[in-house]
Amino acid sequence: MNILTPHQESALQTAGHLALTANAGSGKTFVLARKYLDALIKDNLEISTVAAITFTEKAASELYQKISVLIEERIKDPNNIQDKKKLEKIRRQLVSANISTIHSFCISILREYPVEAELDARFIPIDENLSEELIELSVEEMIRTSFENELINEELKYLIRIFSSKSKLQKQLINLIKNRKNVFTIRQKIYSLSEQNIADLFYEEFSKNFFRIWNKLKNQFIENLNIINSLVLEEDSKNQNAIEIKGKAKLLYTESNLKNVVNLLNDIRNLAFTDKYLIRTRGYLKNAQADSIPAELSNVQVLMKTLHTFQIPDNHKEIELELARLGKTLLTFFEFALNNYADKKRNEGYIDYEDVLLHTKLLLENSDVKKALTAKYNFIMVDEFQDTNEIQYQIFLPILDYLKGGKLFIVGDEKQSIYKFRDAEIEIFNQTRNDIKNSVGDKNLLVLPDSFRMTPAICAFCNHIFKNLFNEPDETLGEVPATDLVCARVDDKKGHVEFLISREDEDNSTNSESELVAKKILSIITNNQYNLRDISVLVRKRKYFADLEKVFTKYQIPFSIVGGTGFYQKQIISDIFNYLSFLADENNSTALAGLLRSPFFNVSDSRLFEISLNKGRSFWKKLTFLKDEKDLSEIYNLLTENISISSSISLPDLIYKIVTDRNFLSILSTRNDSYQEIANLNKVINIARNFNAVGFRNLYDFLTFMKDSIAGLTDEAQAAITSNADAVQMMTIHQAKGLEFPVVFLYKTDESGISASIKSGEVKIDKKFGLLTKVPINQNYLEDYLSAPVNSIYNYFEENKNNAELKRLLYVALTRAKDELYITTAIKTKSDFKKDSFIDLLAKGLKNNFLSDEIAFTENLEMLSIIEKKYINKTEQINLNIPLTSGIDEKFKEIESSIRPYNNVVINPASLHSHEKGEIISASKVSIYSQCPLKYLLTYEYGFGKFNSDYLNFKLSGKQSGYRFFSDNSEEEKSELTDERFETFENQDIDYDASLYGRLFHKAMEKSINTDDLDNFIVSEIGSGNNNQNLNPKLHLRLKTDIEAFKKSKIYSDISNAANYKNEFEIYVADEDYFLHGIIDKIIFDGDKILIYDYKTDDIEKKEIIKHANYYLMQLKFYLYIASKLFIRFNNFEGNLIFVKHPDDIVNLRFDRNQMKKLEEEIKSIINAIRMRNHEKNPEHCRVCPFSGLTNKCIIN
After folding, report:
1. What are phi and psi of 99, to 5 degrees?
2. What is the distance between the alpha carbons of residues 379 and 410, in angstroms, rounded to a whole number?
3. For residue 101, what are the β-bridge partners?
4. What angle do CA 319, 325, 328 make, to 5 degrees?
5. In the sheet where 535-539 sits, what is the strand order?
6. Exposure of 863 by Cβ count < 10 A (0-12 exposed, 13-18 middle, 19+ buried)?
7. Nearest-5° Cα angle at 541, 538 to 546
8. 8-state DSSP, 1029
9. CA nearest 163: which of 49, 351, 330, 388?
10. pLDDT tens digits for 752-803?
């Protein structure tokens, strides 16, 4: 996508506020990155004045990566010479750029103005788990103290009776606190009124909204009803029901009284419809007549079912008054609980996710702060804007002075708004588009229709379906207009769409839906079309993973579940819980028995029985009697060791140790879901780290937390896995948002969702209508609870908005597929599709009931192609023949067990980690750690960063050269990114400053100093950059000799003739949740190959090259890795170590893009070990380490 499409070009050239609607796969991140960089280059904005807000941290990382790549491309572009210095400055500053989620952005604002925000300056953002824990405690305490307060305990008892139990009331109060931003809105807007006024408001809202709905549906309903009624009267002009219906239908056209309209509809329903809202065939419409008007019949039945939900009970005023009383009373206790929660947070300096937005919104009401932030932020970019909500809108707009200042750039796609359950409001996307339109005109409302992702077949399939499903949208119901995809694929793949249908009324034991999926995957893999990692199975609900897990295990298909439920109920979590429980209490015999028979130790049941026969009050005491037996001695010693250290090391370190002590990881690696198990281990370690970070918590507290989580948190998601695992990826559609896969299976499309209608004992929070639920009348708690009329309005809007979101969810699912799309379902021939299922939507979109063997249609598809370096649009006719497959006859091998032998399995324990986010990992850090982890500890953790230089200076002068062994924090921060390449690590017998020599040599290479200019260069550098110190004559002589010799070498001649290169090339690149940094001596770009040259100034003999190279190879590998991360278009990478004393004896490494995966594992294992603070000593390094004594032994015993 080097050549911009016309739509991308337009988006980049449009000045001022801009709203960009981006179709799936249209390259919006590319446009975001270009727009960001243009703001810094063309508009001359400082990087601190630009904020790019994304929906997730992953999206922020991807945007950061795109911007990094663009910067490097522009720096090396010869046409950008005038911007080179500016680009290099941006590259250095990028690590501090405001590219983050909305919460991170708001936290940075609150950090800047804590006093004005009335926060502790050292406030700590807390995660959801801790927040929920504090909320539950706050509600429990509130209920307990309220019972003891005679002034309010009767009101509390009233609420408990309404909700039938204290625990159910507690659940509702917790929900109110979690959604307090919306509660605050209705508290001021509605519940500041009297109970009677609130009751009147409920009925007013019902009346007003009913007529809006009725006026929209009236004509369609009456017209269809009249067509049906006319047929009845044609057949039988004296049909009494038909005569009455005709008169009542006529009255409906003009009736304006609310109750009269409802009564007329009820009368018509009783005359023409059954209890199930079907037109009567007995005494009214005959079957033969019904067959002639199927569309009208279907429409009127659906409309009557909808309209009949709007009822006005005779006692509606009593119901509304009771609902008002309940709301005001509930809010009273909500306030009490919320104050408790606020006190607990304030005492610890905590704020939760909800606080972050609420405090920022309130902060912006401070005119001085608002003015300062308006001046600070000149440009705000927001990605995935369709997923924002009102409070986020109320943060962005004031900062930009309601579009009177700065620039706002929003990117989104209303067709992909699928986070309503997270309070996303698609209305905000439309409102902001209108704001921009009113500010600068509709010329700044642009679209990116071109999809580079999907093949023509999938594009045509999606367009065909959604032009029907998105037809005539009603914005008030969250419906969106159709926007056709323009296919911009540059390859020749046509694509494939297929339905896999399990016919449930046939004998389908071997062709169940899950079996069809497994067999189709095996067929794809067998034909060598794709790797397993190229295949994703998407579902609406995580509970559907269970069937797939079983069948994938049966057919030996490796898989991973992204966010599968039941994390705390996984056996691996129970095993860790047992291990920790035993370490906390060695008399816990149940935990020890479970631990011994787990994969940690694999003690057989018969052996456990033998142990139990020994004396002792606990199982541990019984085991002690057998501690010297061969099979138990290692177990006993290891458990004894871990008991002794369990109270003295951190929780994450303890868990890391117990899972890496023996062959536990190797056993896990034999399982088909091994990738998932390792990821779950990582997650539990990170949970332990976060738990530990709160302070004043120990192993016993963690075990209590784990016990409660295992018992209660059944829907906790399993951990996400790395994308490079060769396994089928199973995930929900929401988790697939923003991703793409060559092959997608959409599974269980016949399943429906959960109704969102109002139920007894459950309070709905609506910003327009207030707190809604069913209530008892006259304290009849044992009778059916009743609904106020306003409840039916809420239910109508919720049902329709949920249906609109279901269509968008289907759109997101289908547009994840790049090449092949498989839609699976189970169908009963004589049954209707479930109303809110994907298959029902697909049936409507395709106008097909899926009873044939194939669906065929033709679709005109707009194509975008490149001709002579220009994009050209043309329309092609796509003929789709979509198979409906209900059986796969190929035979595939089945197995009985998912466990394979693990004797020869090797698994890298460094794949487990626990660490802080945002740190910078340099090449020197990785290199030094690879030499000796303890050396790394002394150098970077304990502040002996200058020890090596001091050691050498002491040798030369007999005294320290003004350095301190310990540096203060400011110095550490300042030196975080200093160039560490010139610090020697080896105890060489030299009598000059090797570090200074290295710096001068590299500087000479960077500036390509000619031999004749060397003396002037040296004098200039010593005078300007090294505090006028006298240059050691031996250093001067060696520097001049080495540079002259190097410039005469063959390698210098070769690299000097390179056409495209950079000297002293600095790289920052984001990787996972940290940053990688390195400065490369010389990098050459040659075709699809990158060559890296690293100069080493060691004063060594030729025979020592290999020995010395071994100490530098990890640094070279690191450079190759970060170059491969930054320059994704290159496929081959070569690294070269040049010892300047022997320049033509080069040590080199070569990797292609595939081999980079192994190098990535090696680098990341070191980084994870660094971040896990694993600091073991490497005795083999002592003889060349500055931290060794005169005997070449480590100074640390």
Report:
1. -120, 105
2. 11
3. 54
4. 140
5. 450-451, 486-487, 854-867, 870-885, 496-503, 817-827, 741-746, 535-539, 728-732, 559-562
6. middle
7. 85
8. P
9. 330
10. 887 888 999 999 999 999 999 999 999 898 899 999 999 999 999 999 999 9
